């Protein structure tokens, strides 16, 4: 019996595989690739790749250049400005609601993982493993704030932008050697959330996002 959902599953698997390889730097910003290369890289059939490309173009992750092929998005100043502006708009509104709805237990859990990571880093144990842990904690806090809205449209749009943000991170300001300041900034955001005052929380997340933006722009 044919499964009518199979084409959908293949498209989603192709998308997941492409973004995984992109974030693993198996393909680089600005690089040209062919559909056949994407088939070989993702292990997905050509039909799924052909359907994938328009989605990636719509999301700003690739651009099709006649006679040359598919070009992976450049990390340029315009992309950085737009990606950070998107984050700022989304996260300021989300955190205003999150600071009122988040449970004390959730906030305590988020605080503990940040404090534990900060303590390890301050003891001189900033290993690659700790940096990976800190990066995961970093992304998790922002995604937790967005997901608290319970809005699938916003969550999907945010995650598309998050792919661009991770590419910007890799290109412009890796967390390497920066675990202490990043954890301290996040703890300042958590302290603001714990006041349960929306404006205080919005101001704190704006400072945090603008600091990251300035690093990415090398201001």
UniProtKB/TrEMBL annotation:
Transmembrane segments: none
Stretches assigned to the HTH gntR-type domain: 8-75
Sorted UniProt keywords: DNA-binding, Transcription, Transcription regulation
Taxonomy, superkingdom: Bacteria
InterPro entries per UniProt: GntR_C (IPR011711), TF_FadR/GntR_C (IPR008920), Tscrpt_reg_HTH_GntR (IPR000524), WH-like_DNA-bd_sf (IPR036388), WH_DNA-bd_sf (IPR036390)
GO molecular function: DNA binding; DNA-binding transcription factor activity
Keyword Transcription regulation: yes
Record bears the keyword Transcription regulation: yes
Record organism: Phyllobacterium zundukense
Record's protein name: GntR family transcriptional regulator
């Amino acid at each position: 019996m044919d499964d009518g959902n199979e084409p959908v599953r293949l498209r989603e698997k192709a998308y997941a595989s492409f973004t995984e390889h992109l974030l693993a730097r198996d393909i680089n910003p600005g690089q040209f690739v062919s559909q056949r290369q994407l088939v070989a890289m993702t292990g997905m059939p050509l039909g799924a790749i052909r359907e994938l490309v328009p989605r990636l173009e719509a999301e700003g992750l690739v651009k099709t250049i006649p006679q040359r092929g598919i070009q992976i998005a450049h990390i340029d100043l315009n992309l950085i400005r737009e990606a950070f502006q998107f984050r700022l708009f989304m996260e300021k509104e989300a955190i205003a609601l999150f600071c009122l709805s988040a449970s004390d237990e959730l906030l305590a859990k988020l605080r503990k993982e940040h404090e534990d990571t900060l303590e390890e880093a301050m003891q001189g144990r900033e290993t690659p493993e700790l940096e990976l842990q800190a990066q995961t904690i970093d992304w998790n806090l922002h995604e937790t704030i967005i997901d608290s809205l319970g809005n699938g449209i916003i969550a999907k749009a945010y995650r598309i932008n998050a792919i661009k943000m991770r590419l910007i991170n890799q290109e412009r300001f890796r967390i390497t050697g920066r675990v202490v300041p990043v954890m301290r900034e996040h703890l300042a955001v958590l302290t603001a959330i714990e006041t349960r005052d929306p404006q205080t929380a919005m101001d704190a997340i704006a400072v945090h996002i603008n600091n990251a933006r300035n690093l990415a722009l090398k201001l």
